[in-house]
Design goal:
It is a single chain. The protein is α/β, with parallel strands linked by helices and 362 residues long. Among the domains are: 180 residues, Rossmann fold, CATH 3.40.50.720; 73 residues, no CATH class. It has 12 helices and 16 strands. Strands 7-6-12-13-14-11-15 form a 7-stranded mixed sheet. A 5-stranded parallel sheet has the order 9-2-1-10-16. Strands 3-4 form a two-stranded antiparallel ribbon. The model has no long low-confidence stretch (mean pLDDT 97). The chain binds flavin-adenine dinucleotide (FAD). The site of flavin-adenine dinucleotide has 34 residues, from helix 1, helix 11 and helix 12.
């Protein structure tokens, strides 16, 4: 008999497993995939740690979370400074003085940049934005919208910005310094050796069964465990009683190239509509690998259908209403603790997931 069955070996399930192991509990972790780590899984290809489910950069303001992960594996000092490519023009992200001085050749000071942005926003003065296009223009003006937002967002959602609701973009931070660091958090880095090393440390000494879907043997799993930690999709747990929650999905096309440096940066966003992918990730730059080869991943947004990986939740009114009903059912499941991005149907950064797993009552 196990004290706990943990469904899912992602960051949430693995962090809980680590805590339970410290409490001397008998734990079994199962995962339906053929590897541990959920979406943070990294695989070593040609000496390069490849982020199999998209680029993952650890960043946090929680000192306890940062200290916790660093007590398990060393982190490097990677700083996320993505590049945007619009046709054959290259810009720095997030929108900052480097971006503005490249867009407008007469921009040198923050006042110069603001003058341009405010001039371009004037067309929206006194109007309430009716769609994402109008919202974006009201925040950053027409040029930044056209070159850096429009194509990228339309590819992400597979819809025109004119048809997308304004609320998707609440804020567009305009940074009036020459600072390309994407995140504002105090701590940032990549685990040296990849995220799988971090998960291995969390699961060290814990029994793990891969290729094991909870729903294939649900009665048996319930019999052999006193409590369950469930980190899979919440609608699936309740047999889609109130309908399916919606997601956006992604497709990754990963290639090994016979060159040592393909794009000179870990992350390049393609902001125009001339190519179908949104990002190209060159994995070796996360850890300064000195491999002779390189591994790149082209990221294509996809409409989500059953059987695909569910990546991004869609927290619109329709899905939030369905979620509310499932959350009520959760309260009745006395021996089950729900957590992680799929069971909460919420976008979490990695540090939020770890924080939740460290803080939750067991
Ligand atoms: C493209 C992309 C990029 C991201 N980049 C960043 C980033 O740069 N920085 C950052 O902080 N965060 C990032 N995130 C968020 C990060 O991936 C998540 O916070 C984290 O992976 C969530 O962990 P989790 O354990 O909740 O879920 P998951 O990693 O999804 O783990 C859930 C696990 O449960 C298993 N499972 C599900 N159902 C069953 C079942 N029935 N039976 C058995 N097993 C089951 C799954 O196989 C999976 O392994 C990104 C997310 C995406 C999609």
């Amino acid at each position: 008999m196990y004290d706990y069955l943990i469904v899912g070996s992602g960051l949430f399930g693995s962090t809980i497993a680590y805590r339970l192991k410290k409490l001397n509990k008998k734990v079994l972790v199962i995962d339906k995939r053929n590897h541990i780590g959920g979406n943070v899984y990294t695989e070593n290809i040609e000496g390069i740690n490849v982020h199999k489910y998209g680029a993952h950069i650890f960043h946090t303001d929680y000192k306890d979370v940062w200290d916790f992960v660093n007590s398990l594996v060393p982190f490097n000092r990677f700083t996320n400074s993505p590049i945007a490519r619009y046709k054959d023009e290259i810009y720095n992200l997030p929108f900052n003085m480097n971006t503005f001085s490249k867009i407008w050749s007469d921009v040198i000071t923050p006042d110069d940049a603001l003058r341009h942005i405010n001039e371009e926003k004037k067309c929206m003065e006194g109007k309430t934005p009716n769609n994402l296009e109008e919202q974006a223009i009201s925040l950053v003006g027409t040029t930044i919208y056209e070159k850096l937002i429009k194509g990228y967002t339309e590819k992400q959602w597979n819809r025109s910005c004119k048809e997308l609701p304004a609320f998707i973009i609440k804020r567009l931070p305009v940074r009036l310094t020459y600072d390309n660091n994407y995140f504002n958090d105090l701590y940032q880095g990549i685990p040296i050796g990849g995220y799988t090393k971090l998960i291995e440390k969390l699961l060290d000494g814990v029994e793990v069964k891969l290729n094991s879907n909870f729903f294939d043997k649900i009665d048996e799993y319930k019999k052999i465990s006193k409590k369950i930690i469930y980190t899979g999709p919440i609608d699936e747990y309740f047999e889609y009683k109130y309908g399916h929650l919606e997601y956006r999905s992604l497709e990754f096309d990963t290639k090994v190239l016979d060159t040592s440096n393909f794009q000179g940066n870990a992350v390049v966003n393609y902001t125009g509509n001339e190519v179908k992918y949104t990002r190209v990730i060159e994995h070796k730059h996360f850890e300064n690998s000195n491999s002779d080869k390189t591994v790149v991943t082209y990221e294509y947004p996809r409409d989500y259908k059953d059987g695909m990986e569910a990546y991004y939740v869609i927290n619109d009114e329709k899905n939030n209403k369905i979620l509310e009903k499932y959350n009520k059912l959760k309260e009745k499941e006395r021996n089950v603790i729900f957590g992680g991005r799929l069971a909460d149907y919420k976008y979490y950064d990695m540090d939020d997931v770890i924080k939740n797993a460290l803080d939750i009552d067991l």
